[in-house]
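Re: Re: token formats

Sure, here are both.
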Amino acid sequence: MALPSRDHSVSDLRLRAVDAAIALMQSRGDADFAMAELAAAAGLTEARLAVAFPDRDALLAELRRVSYDRLADRRSAIYEAPGGDPATRLMRGGQEYLDFARANPALYRLMFCDPADGGIARIIAEAMPAEALDALTEGVRRCQLQRGRRTDKARDLAFLLWTTLHGVVVLALDTDDAANADARWEKVAATVARLTELICAASDA
């Protein structure tokens, strides 16, 4: 599943390298590519790539940032757009999240499962910054309003939805059973759909 791009403040060269890295991860199934391999894939010399990214850590940090921005933009487009059925939008957002993780397992792991410096707190701060959680919260709030529910805890429920999404995705990715992958992801989707329905119907009383 390709992601639309905002890519503000990213130079063409840096973005080219980031997109080439994503393509490499999709084809390889992991993030263990060498910088020389990335330079060739991006159509750059190693020297040019080094100007943009002096080391692998700098590249991966930018790759995460761009990917988080793209996902945040997608969340906003789904949850904050006017019109439409709020519950359907919330379900759609959850399904697109699952589709992204299944199509991009190496990128997903890099974004959400590799704590590096700062541990899990860093992942939460970067992967679900305030503006991203704002969009999901708005999706939950609209859904609850439509059901005639109070919305006092919409933000808490939005965070619960995202953390549960992440948990079931990791379980699905960690299950080494390619023959039953479709059935496994269908169960994951059903779990997310049920949780979304419960959240939409939840009362804050």
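Second one below.
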Amino acid sequence: MITKFWWGEKEGERKIHWLRWKRLSKAKCNGGMGSREMENRKRKKVRIWYDNWLPGGSNAKVVSSNGQFDKNAYVEDLIDDDLKQCRRDHIFSSFNAYEANKIVSIPLFF
């Protein structure tokens, strides 16, 4: 799916191959685009309070209390699928300001 995004076709026109898959799939910290990381994350359900998922920093785990979400809730529970956006009111009432701002700054792809 990621390769179709980078090199798919649109109305018979092929996209330009800007970078090799080897470079695209490298981790960002190693000079790549992190495409393989995105692909792997999409397949795995990420738990809010148990997994490292917040952007930036070495410790990417949430430290806020559970708030309005179950202790076994998944990151996908923070997104309103119908509106295709974060549940900002729930996020800001369930997480400390630092974490809430990090969460709502994560780009959503549908």
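The chain has five helices and four strands. The first helix runs from residue 2 to 7.
- S.
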